[in-house]
Amino acid sequence: MKQVVGAFTFVLGLIFGLIGGAALLAYAYQAAGLYPPDDATIKFIARERGWLRDDV
Question: Is the pLDDT assigned to residue 21 strictly greater than 70?
Fold first, then answer.
């Protein structure tokens, strides 16, 4: 019984660790501005720089 509880605790800790690590990594990427820009951001930058015309 003690081994079953230990294994369950290990798996639960592993799951929480993976989820927490992924959330921490996602927060760090967002805080550093490293997420790739979406399509609307790319179009906005292209319009600002004159690379994209709205009449086409």
Answer: yes
The tokens describing 37, both together, are 């820009």
Q: Alpha helix locations (H) across the chain? A: 2-32, 39-48
Q: What residue spans define the domains of the chain?
A: 2-48
Query: Do residues 41 and 33 touch, judged by C-beta distance below 8 A?
Result: no
The answer to whether residues 46 and 55 touch, using CB atoms and an 8 Å cutoff, is: no
For the full predicted model, state whether its pTM sits above 0.70: no
Q: Which of 21, 43, 24, 40 is nearest to 32 (CA)?
A: 24
Give the type of residue at 4: V
Query: What is residue 46's predicted lDDT score, i.e. its pLDDT?
Result: 87
Dist CA 5 CA 14 (whole Å): 14
